Every structure is written in C-alpha cells, then in structure tokens.
Amino acid sequence: MYTKGTSKIILKKCNTILNRNGDIILFSHVDYDHLVQTVIEPMTCDDLDTICIAYRDFSSDDLPDWNNETSVIDQLTCICVCGIEDRIRSEIPDAIATISRVGLI
From CA 77, how far away is CA 89, in angstroms rounded? Predict the structure, then answer.
C-alpha cells in the first residue's frame, strides 16, 4: 500500500526508510529530527510545500482491518520527501478583491 501526505505526519508513521542505494534501513526519532532540520525546514524556507511518499507491504495471510486507519497507516517505509512549488494562480488576487468588495469577507 502506498500513501502520501504532509511530511511531518507521514514520517512519524515510518519506522524504516529507503537509503540512496534503495536499501531499507531503520528510521529513528533522531533520524526524523535530522530530516526535518536538514530537508523539510530548508524546503519550507524556500516556500515549498513538502509531502512524504511512503509504503507498507502486507502479506495476503495477514491483511489489516482497512477500516482502521491507525493500524493501516503505521510501520511505513519512507520512499522520499518532495518539495512542491504551489504558486498562487494569477486570477486569485482579483477574485479575492471582488469577494471583499461585495462584502463576503
């Protein structure tokens, strides 16, 4: 199962991470803090939103209760953290001005 979401939230659910060689290695709280400080915070300072992409393998003999999100989104393996530039569309400032002018804000 693959998942993506806000980096800090998904990373807290990861107990392993893929290294540069594609090997799965343990991912500790210390590693989490280091990744936040050296990757996520610098991207945020560059006005990038970050997402984490992660996965978890399930054996067909031991499938989780898919209705219990807590048991499914746990023990993940982090694949990567991506920085996404989310620019304001050009029409947004005019739309906000119009809404403000008619008294909706």
Answer: 34
